[in-house]
Amino acid sequence: MFHFWRTVISGPEAKVNIIGFDVDDDGQKQLKQVAEAGGGNYATVRDKSEFEDVILKKWKPSIFQLIGTQGVQLHEYVDQMERLQNIYGPLYHASEREADRIKTAVYYLKDNKLISREDGTEVSDKAEEMRILRTDHFKAIKEEKDAEAKKAHEEIDAKVQAWKDKWYKELENE
Asked: What's the domain of life for this entry (predicted)?
């Protein structure tokens, strides 16, 4: 006895299709219940030929399913980029505000002669170095995450396109 599960994901829903090889009556009933509970179908087959018929003819996606199948949809990609920007933006602005507060404090201390001009310049220069260092670090992380997201997007789209191409060929051969 052998079972073959095929999960089909379309949108947020998944379907569980099951093929049983040489399954007794009780086993068929159980597998059919599992498939129905998973929103899918159950089929029983006796040999490789019947298996191929079920996969290629009975369960083959329709042209409308193929057309409707997307990889990463644009709005999902944009949402992900927006979430990344929502992390990057506040970090960048907090860094800028910190640098501004330090500069303002240095001006106050110099104007009230609480520190020398040289010490004030040294503190301002260090604050600017740290601001640049943070900004460069945040940009590098953002660019790395942008590249990772783009690569994942392209890989998913390529896999979906390969799947669609395979099934388009099968539809043409009918």
From this structure: Bacteria
